[in-house]
Design a protein that fits this description.
alpha/beta; Rossmann fold; 3 helices; 4 strands; about 35% helix; globular; binds nicotinamide-adenine-dinucleotide
């Protein structure tokens, strides 16, 4: 693996478009990846696309779920060196609806 890339990564929103693309790319570069998302079915599909990955179902807004994911990462992969925070949703911004 190139020095430019991390070895152990965690990706939130891993079942979504950006998260999955990030996880696939990191694994392609040789990283071991923890996949975190509240979408269990999506994570199952991810696991096939990201070899050697470890999925954790949870809600990124719940500290207990995040702690659990961190513990799984430490135990099964090692210390996480890079976090891709892609959990979220696309919605209308308040700014867009002001004025006029
Ligand atoms: N796609 C883009 O071009 C783009 C551009 C700029 C910003 N963003 C932002 O990046 C984020 C990801 O975009 P995307 O296109 O991959 O969205 P997406 O809807 O495809 O994926 C989002 C994923 O996050 C998960 N998720 C949402 N809330 C969660 C939570 N609380 N805990 C755990 N998982 C949660 C969902 O289950 C889903 O799998 C969004 O916040 C979006 O606003 C996206």
């Amino acid at each position: 693996m190139s020095d430019r890339f991390t070895e152990i990564a965690a990706v939130t929103g891993a079942a979504g478009a950006l998260g999955r693309a990030s996880a696939v790319g990191l694994a392609h570069e040789g990283a071991k990846v923890l996949l975190f998302d509240r979408d269990e079915a999506g994570l199952k599909a991810d696991r096939r696309a990201v070899p050697g990955s470890v999925p954790v179902v949870g809600d990124a807004t719940k500290p207990a779920d995040v702690e659990r994911a961190a513990a799984v990462a430490r135990k099964q992969l090692g210390p996480v060196e890079l976090l891709v925070a892609a959990a979220g949703m696309v919605g209308p911004s308040k700014i867009r609806h002001r004025g006029r």
